[in-house]
Amino acid sequence: MNLWSDATAIEQELIDLRRELHQHPELSFEERWTSAFIADYLEKLGLAVRRNVGRTGVVAVLRGGRPGPTVALRADMDALPVTEESGVPYASENPGRMHACGHDTHVACLLGAAKLLTGVRAQLGGNVAFLFQPAEEIGAGAEAMLADGAFDDPRPDMVFGLHNHPEIPIGKVAIKVGPLMAASASIAINVRGKGGHGAMPHRDIDPIVAASAIVMNLQTIVSRSVNPLEPAVVTIGQFHAGTAGNIIPETAELTGTIRAFDEGLYNELPRMIERVITNTAAAFGAAAELKVHQSIPAPVVNEERATAIVERAVVKALGEDAVVRPTPSMGGEDFALFQKRVPGCFIWLGVGNPAIGAVHPWHSPHYLVDERALKIGAYTLAQAAADAIDNLGSGGR
Fold first, then answer.
1. In which element (H, E) is residue 68 found?
2. Which of 240, 248, 258, 375 could form a disulfide with 204 if both were Cys (CB 3.0 to 4.6 A apart)?
3. H helices within 233-294, ranges in order?
């Protein structure tokens, strides 16, 4: 089975789908129009559709001509609170909302994959579950869908997903075995001192000075407490304190993020941070408290067998030169939670093209994609699913 010619035949439909989605961006867990649009399209294909999975998610199941393994395909669908400045004629119609991370592209690719696989369902010796996930941008949608039974009936044996990448040229697909994206958590640190007059600091305990020392000392975690061969990030992105220049405040607030590929290190980082902030604050007579929110508690790690299946699918249509080996990113992706349940592979789809201005990073108000990537994404997901069903059913590798 080779679905490339079928994908090429529906290219304009994929572009139209993506542009319709692009005009109606919705934020995390607010994807009601998007969810209905997706569900209606899938029902017209004759698939069994569950709406409102994990609040606003959609799950559709295609059952093949013969019983066998199940492969899941996932696309995220939420947008960002960004005012679009791309200049395209199909720009966002929702003020202050934009598909600035390209999730409209992901949805169009997965809808295309559903159409491609529906056309060959009689040849499939298994099932395909299509997962349209809300709230990826806040790291909450995958967990919500899984809690609501997205993997329950039928239970997948393997899962695939993709994300567009503006730094990868059109026509290329980035694929690698092993860690691709990091586990991540947000942290909040409250530093408590003793407020008073700025002219008499000796009578007070200045939480700003203590918090400033904490920011600096936290940098030693990665440089001195973590194995240099294990990537990790400890970043403080916000520092809030005080109400006036001559007042020493009672408290200072720090917020930031931690990242790691290794789950053991990821789970150890909060203890390292706790040690640093407690002892640093104490040196100034202050106290510090840490709160951790594990938004994406696992890294994206691509399983060898699943990765080989995707790579063969890409090479089958586009040739070996289409595959590139990416440098892993410390960005997080809650696709990792699906991979915690079953083996899977997450790939990056090249959408970059300087000739049309598709060079801007994710979350930019100028973000663009080369829409020729849509047929590549739809094909890759569909072909990988079909090949995985054959591979899993035959016990091959």
1. none
2. 248
3. 263-283
Residue closest to 291 by CA, chosen among 315, 255, 324, 318: 255
Give the residue carrying structure tokens 């001509």: 65
Who's near 86: CB < 8 A, 6+ residues apart? 365, 366, 367, 368
Q: Quick one: 4-180+299-394 is in which CATH superfamily?
A: Zn peptidases (3.40.630.10)
Peptide bond into 365 cis (omega under 30): no
Q: Is the CATH number of domain 183-296 3.30.70.360?
A: yes
CB 238 within 8 A of CB 255: yes
Q: Where are the beta strands (DSSP E) in 77-219?
A: 127-133, 158-169, 173-174, 178-181, 183-192, 196-197
Residues 78 and 42: their CA atoms lie apart, in Å, by 18
pLDDT tens, position by position, 262-314: 999 999 999 999 999 999 999 999 999 999 997 899 999 999 999 999 999 99
CB 75 within 8 A of CB 335: no
Domain boundaries, the chain: 4-180+299-394, 183-296
pLDDT tens-digit series, residues 234-269: 999 999 999 999 999 999 999 999 999 999 999 999
In total, the chain counts a number of residues equal to: 397
Does the pTM surpass 0.85? The reply is yes
- Give tens-digit pLDDT for 196-243: 999 999 999 999 999 999 999 999 999 999 999 999 999 999 999 999
